[in-house]
Amino acid sequence: MEELFILGAGGHAKVVIDTARKCGYCPSAVFDDDETLIGTAVSGVPVVGKIHDLSENTEKNAFIAIGSNKVRQKLVTRFFKMVWPTLIHPNAYVAPGAKISPGSLVCAGAIIQPDAAIGSHSIVNTGAKVDHDCLIGDFVHICPGCNLAGAVKVDHGSLLGVGCSVIPLISIGAWCTIGAGSVVVRDVVSHQKAMGVPARIR
User: Fold this and answer.
1) CATH classification of 2-78 is 3.40.720.10, yes or no?
2) What is the second-level CATH architecture of the domain 86-195?
3) How much is the pLDDT for 1?
4) pLDDT tens across 87-98, in order?
5) Among the four residues 152, 179, 180, 200, which has the most C-beta atoms within 10 Å?
6) Which residues on adjacent β-strands are paired with residue 142?
7) What backbone torsions phi and psi does residue 21 show, to the nearest 5 degrees?
8) Is 121 a catalytic site residue?
């Protein structure tokens, strides 16, 4: 089993560690900038130090177990020599022809249909559904229970809240936030927040 560093010791790290083990990796060390967590463990993996203290030249298999899209982007830029595997839980379904880019996580129960594409360092969380021909950018977080219909486009850095739904052919711009439970029936331009049924800009 290949060794894997875990960056981040929050609740999301538990999901990442479980998925990593099921994918054949051996999570060996967790790093987090909260000094009070050093010496503790996450799902049996010791928290050994701060992310901040890792050398920018570190060359290891690593995975960023942090939900914040902006933080993941910053860490990827900083640790340019890390090797970022793709983690797909065995209880997820990824159709032939779908593409999952490096550093991304597909959680248990997620469904990714034919010709969908998931960018780098994105999260398709528990039970989320990404239908055919969807294009998901880098550093996106599709939260648990989201439903994206066919040919939806989500640009980089956006967050789709728990249980939201997006009808076919909708485009959501970069760094948008879609509120939990919202139903998106119109395009959302970059850097906007939308919520409600139907979703409106707030």
Assistant:
1) no
2) 3 Solenoid (2.160)
3) 81
4) 999 999 999 999
5) 152
6) 124, 160
7) -65, -40
8) no
